[in-house]
Amino acid sequence: MKPLLIWICITAYLECFGIKMSAKTETVTISIQQELKETETPKPISWVVVPDESGRSLLILQGGKVLVIPSSLKDSQVRTFMELAPEEMIIKDFEEGLLGLVFHPNYKSNGLFYLYYTMQRPKRSVLVERRVKNQKKMELDLKHDRTLIEIEQPYWNHNSGVPEFGPDGYLYLSTGDGGKANDPHDFSQNTFSLLGKVLRIDVDKAEGALEYGIPEDNPFKNKPGYRGEIWTIGMRNPWRLHWDIQSNTLFCADVGQHQKEEINLIQKGGNYGWSFREGTEAFSLKNRKPSGEIEFIDPVFEYGHDEGTSVSGGIVYRGSKHPELYGHYIFGDWGTGKCWAIEVKNDQTISKKYIEFVLDGEVINDLPKFVNGKPQSPFKPVNFCISAGGDLVLLDWKGMVYFAN
Ligand SMILES: [Ca+2]
Ligand SMILES: [Ca+2]
What we know:
This protein is mainly β. It has helices at residues 3-16, 107-110, and strands at 26-35, 44-49, 57-61, 65-69, 79-83, 98-103, 112-119, 124-134, 139-152, 162-165, 171-174, 197-201, 230-233, 238-244, 249-254, 260-265, 277-278, 281-282, 301-304, 311-316, 329-333, 339-345, 348-359, 362-363, 370-371, 374-375, 381-386, 392-396, 400-404. The protein has one domain (22-404): 6 Propeller (Neuraminidase). The termini are far apart. The radius of gyration is 21 Å and the shape is globular. Bound molecules: calcium ion (CA) (2 copies). One calcium ion binds at residues 254, 262, 272-274, 277, 299.
């Protein structure tokens, strides 16, 4: 056989086993700079632009504080917007705390926003509506404090907690499986539990005893044995959710246990597998099959624990500084610092790039390093967000806020 033919045969053979013989993955280099150096920003978990055209943003800290950041990013003008009271004991273990904040789509007329955080005694997570009473001054209305959802948390980990509004005006909320390992109580596949799901609710309505409405087109509304809030089933610990309005796609990065880290495209009523499956594989520690026929939705992208140990989802890049990443979903790994950009079309990943971030001439996320099987990265990407100018904000859980140049 001719060499080319031999190569094609080998490639086809390996691809039968899912081994891709594609060309070397391209690496995109992005230089970044640290901002807010003079401000204490421990465990930053989200950067949210205030939707009032002021150019201000909120920086959400896991410990329960929210800072207002001026468009100038000047440290001297940063101030505390709100701080959850310490008696609420929102953070006790490292996955607990203030985990998400989102503004209401009609924020300009109603001043509303939503927080998701954990509380203690008993352990639970809550979705709470708060209000800004003076938008110009970003002054919190101390009287408006409405708890919409309260979910009992059996363990300290896997609380998930990303509220995001869709283009339909409904609030999507990711929840984790409740914690420990192996989803010991099978919450993710339990259709009467709010754990291990993506939920979809109408915050502008109240229905029966609920503080919110359940949209008429939710897939399981009024179905016996199902909570009507459920939009998808079988999530483990989504960190995080992102609506890309332009492509009308809800991205969900789901943290794996010991096999695979996942990027999923969320579809109405879908079952994303956990804990029957981890990524595209059977979950090896349970290795059981569902009693009936369930169609599981595979991730659109996954990676193994040779590359990382805990995925941090991000955003679809729509900025202008890096045209080579336009329309790509950007995310990284909290354990190893490795970062990716993938391009998705027709529910398939059509291209993959690595991203290396350069700070002061040094790459901060070099090749993944493991010692005794544990990832060693001083850089802990926890979220990739969008700045007021539409560019990339990179949050390092170690307390740093970076802006892409
Ligand atoms: Ca938990
Ligand atoms: Ca899955």
